[in-house]
Design goal:
Order of helices and strands: EEEEEEHHHHEHEHEEEHEHEHEHEEHEEE
Radius of gyration: 28 Å
Largest sheet: 7 strands, mixed
Number of strands: 19
Helix content: 25-40%
Mean pLDDT: 82
Strand content: 15-25%
Number of helices: 11
Strand order of the largest sheet: 8-7-9-10-11-17-19
Low-confidence stretches: 1-35, 40-44, 371-387
Structural class: alpha/beta
Amino acid sequence: MAAMPRLPISGGTRSDPRGLSIGGGRFPIKLVGKRLPPIAITGEKLMATITDVARVAGVSKNTVSRYLNERGYMSEKTKSAIQDAIDLLHYQPNQIARSLTTKRTNFVGLVIPDVVQPFFATMASRIEDELDRRGYKMILCDTMHSPAKERKYLDMLTANKVDGIIVGSHSVDIDYSGIGLPIISLDRSLADDIPVVHADHVQGGHIAAEAFLKHGCKKVVQFVGYSKVLSPSAQRHKVFAEQMRDHGVECFTYELRLNQFEFSSYLQTAKMFLDQYPGVDGIFAADLVALAVQREALSRGRRIPDDLFVFGYDGSFVHKIAYPPLPTVIQPYEEMAATIVDLLERRIAGQTPEFHSYVIPVVSSESVPDEADGDPVGNYDLTVAPR
């Protein structure tokens, strides 16, 4: 292989920090000291190496490596000299080589079934923000309801040795217990040794039931997810049905198909449902399903909420898009994201979480100010529930 050409740096010395010349351009620097060495380039793009950083900073390569990996004591003067050299040369560490040294990649995979679905879109946004705050980059794996695609993503994440995986997918035939990486589940019961973080769906079921009883409903229908997908979210439907029965309210349950997330399919379901149950006076469902029923009911001349009381669950931004606005149970997106990432960091560090389930309180949209979209207000203490 031909030797990489060198471009001399001139005009900058430690005693004269007014600037230096690189290939005819002028770059102001803060470094002071002896004259700077030549730097390797490829074509027209400057390709600084750790050796170049060490030369410019006047330290050894090992010192630069320790600075990049935050290992060992180092004076502020040395840190400043190295960072100035990095900024000057636009040096980018070799992440592959760095991961071999640190045994970390600082990448985390997020596996979800549909990034367009508001709950998962909101969670992905909050999780990415929380990961970034802690120095991680997120790889979004949108399985589009395909187990085959999900397996390919898992193979990719494993082959690239990501630090951990957050799973919110709805596949029913994939065993996550043998992946061999730290895993935290988002609202899914994956395995006994995989912690799951979820909203307090029991509390959510009680909030919804109270709203229907207060409105005076006599015949209600709740739309539930595919029953073979094991999820703590089923608890809200169980509690809701029990509360309706205990108060003498007829309650029917309609089960959606596996990974049925498209709004167009919800509209078709709403039309069929309203044809079959014209006497229903209450609907409880996830926000998008509830909004589809509300839209179809309005098109048929039914008044909301006088003729049909519609109450949602999730509380992402969509519940305020429609008119009238949809009352709903708001899931604690930010708190769930923070808890998920915190647990994942513990697992990456080799720690075993204390509990299997981590349950976080929910609130009703009717108790949240209008300006608070998508997240409950206030800071909640984490409530943990062993299973």
